[in-house]
Amino acid sequence: MPALLRGLARSGRDRSAFEVSCEVMVATGADDAELAAACTATRKQIAFYGSTPAYRKVLEQHGWGDLHPELHRLSKLGEWEAMGGLIDDEMLGAFAVVGPVDTIAGALRNRCEGVVDRVLPIFMAASQECINAALQDFRR
Q: Domain named Luciferase-like: which ranges (predicted)?
């Protein structure tokens, strides 16, 4: 956002003239088992992104740049399960909204309100029923 705001200021344009959209990974579940499965799937997705050179800077920005070479090495070996195991709870929470389904709408608002105009949640391994419940809560 800082770069966007600087660019708008340099060009004399106002932030209100733009709609900022953001995809947000969501790990949720209706019960402990579904939440655990969603967290595992989300960790794997984060690890996949973190293994690519294009995302190294993102890891570095958060202080996890040292993890990139290992993720990249494991990706070359096809060690997807091992890669997901390197994503700890702190990293999971930094890159995804995580929690029981009845908390997700509020957590998405807390993370995104005032920063982005449109949230595009990406639900990881959640049942359609769980996704529908979270979206229903978010629309309220």
A: 6-117
